[in-house]
Design goal:
18 strands; Beta-lactamase; about 500 residues; about 20% strand; 15 helices
Length: about 500
């Protein structure tokens, strides 16, 4: 589930694809300098103040040059902690009062496009600072590493991330089903000093969508669900007739149905009252589509709530029971589930968050729903996620045709890559990978299956995003390259 305190309005960095920092020897030299224009000078001043990260220093800068953000200093400083600041990489466009540059996070491989606009009149106060994540430009491609080099770099990187307070969780890397790296860091329970292990259960947020989509494709393979049939075919009592008649299963799977989100004031007011998938429909089911179904992509947790309800209606089983019997058990995933949060679950870590501009970690219990849903919020382990990946690749859960249909990209997404059916697909430094991430206050996870190389990456964290995502990116960006295809005789 994509949820949590919004990123600062002036720093809209979508960190779903953020990665981890390069070692010093890998750092590309800064390729350019900022122009001597009002926009260029203000950009340089902001970068310097933001990168220093001092509360008094940066607060004074905001009050003088960007007063609309001065009241959000805690959020800005948390964003600084998360990114480590930024390196300037390239000037793309320059005018006296507007500047567009590429920057890279100091604490990750992630690139972003920074747009700076200032007032035309002196003293040229800032009007806009906008950051948007972009795919890593080819000119800044990272070198592939051999497996031994990669593991050494990963160990060093994780030690740095833990020391900086940016990672607590478990990391697993496998090749052709054989685990080549598995290690856990940090504490599962800070009060009782319980350490994380590779068998610790972590909340996985939106990664549940992979299981929901797999369940739907199992029903498609069995001839019980058709991708281009509308919602009303399977939910004939659905409240909004426009959704029932125009939004198809394919739209829901690809986030193109316009069905909207579940988070916001209504959710916060009823967070613990929403106990079943039907409860969500009672709350949100009267809404019309936000746009013409199929016309564009917009991430929709509610769409996957509907898919879970369709799984239950078509199969005649409770959604949670269906996933347990048809996905977890065949794959050997004995440590995964979505038990209610009030139910004691052995080895389930406590999530810790600093969201909302707080400067200390606190348990995330007051942000959690009653239980995980078909849109996200369950729990798993890095070992179980490897078992899920193996079951997909060996066609234990679906035949080859429907596995390919499930995991191949269908729709372009804003941060690069393509969204399939509950799976994202992207080419990362020349390597095709598919999987899904998840994040909310106090939880973050990522699974990447890279079939051409045989590697599976799974990272889970019990702290805020992008703790797991940056580690996953660090690995994916440096994987040994796919083998070259053999020349035809």
């Amino acid at each position: 589930m994509k949820r949590g305190s919004p990123a600062p309005a002036v720093l809209v960095l979508l960190c779903a694809t953020c990665g981890a920092p390069r070692r010093q020897s890998e750092q590309q030299p800064v390729a350019t300098s900022l122009p001597d224009t009002p926009a260029g000078r203000q950009c340089a001043a902001w970068l310097a103040a933001f990168n220093r990260g001092g509360r008094e220093d940066y607060g004074a800068f905001l009050r003088q040059w960007f007063p609309s953000r001065a009241d959000h200093l805690d959020e800005e400083l948390e964003f600084r902690h998360m990114t480590g600041g930024f390196h300037l990489r390239l000037v793309e466009d320059s005018a006296p009062t507007r500047l567009v540059v590429l920057v890279q996070e100091r604490a990750s491989d992630a690139f972003a496009r920074l747009t700076v606009e200032v007032e035309a009149a002196e003293p040229h106060v800032l009007e806009e600072l906008d950051l948007r994540v972009i795919p890593r430009p080819p000119r800044f491609a990272l070198p592939h590493l051999g497996e031994r080099q990669l593991l050494a770099a990963l160990r060093a990187r994780l030690d740095e991330e833990v020391a900086a307070g940016r990672f607590s969780g478990a990391v697993l890397l496998a090749r052709d089903g054989r685990i080549v790296f598995a290690k856990a860091y940090g504490l599962a329970d800070r009060e009782r000093r319980v350490t994380n292990t590779v068998s610790t259960r972590f909340r996985i947020g939106s990664m549940n969508k992979m299981f929901t989509a797999t369940a739907i494709l199992q029903l498609v393979q069995a001839g019980k669900v058709a991708l281009d049939q509308p919602v009303g075919t399977y939910l004939p009592d659905y409240p909004n007739q426009e959704v029932a008649a125009k939004v198809t299963i394919r739209h829901l799977l690809t986030h193109t149905g316009g069905t909207g989100d579940i988070f916001g004031p209504e959710f916060e007011a009823r967070r613990l009252e929403l106990r079943t998938l039907e409860d969500y429909v009672r709350l949100y089911g009267s809404r019309r589509p936000e746009f013409a179904p199929g016309s564009r992509w917009a991430y929709s947790n509610y769409g996957f709530i509907l898919l879970g309800l369709i799984v239950a209606r078509v199969s005649g089983e409770d959604y949670y029971q269906y996933v347990r019997d048809h996905i977890y058990l065949p794959a050997g995933m004995a440590s995964s589930g979505s038990a209610p949060e009030a139910t004691p679950v052995t080895r389930r870590s406590i999530g810790y968050t600093r969201s909302g501009g707080r400067d200390r970690w606190r348990p995330n219990g007051d942000t959690l729903p009653y239980r995980g849903t078909s849109a996200g919020g369950g729990y798993s382990t890095v070992e179980d996620l490897l078992r899920f990946a193996t079951a997909l690749e060996r066609h234990t859960l679906l035949d080859a045709e429907h596995t390919a249909l499930l995991t191949s990209g269908k729709v372009d997404t804003p941060g690069g890559g393509r969204y399939g059916f509950g799976f994202s697909e992207a080419t990362i430094n020349g390597t095709r990978c598919f999987g899904h991430g998840g994040g909310a206050p106090g939880m973050n996870g990522d699974l990447r299956i890279c079939p051409d190389t045989g590697y599976v990456i799974t990272v889970l964290a019990n702290i805020d995003p992008i703790a797991a995502g940056r580690v996953s990116d660090f690995i994916a960006n440096r994987l040994p390259p796919p083998p070259r295809p053999r020349a035809a005789p």
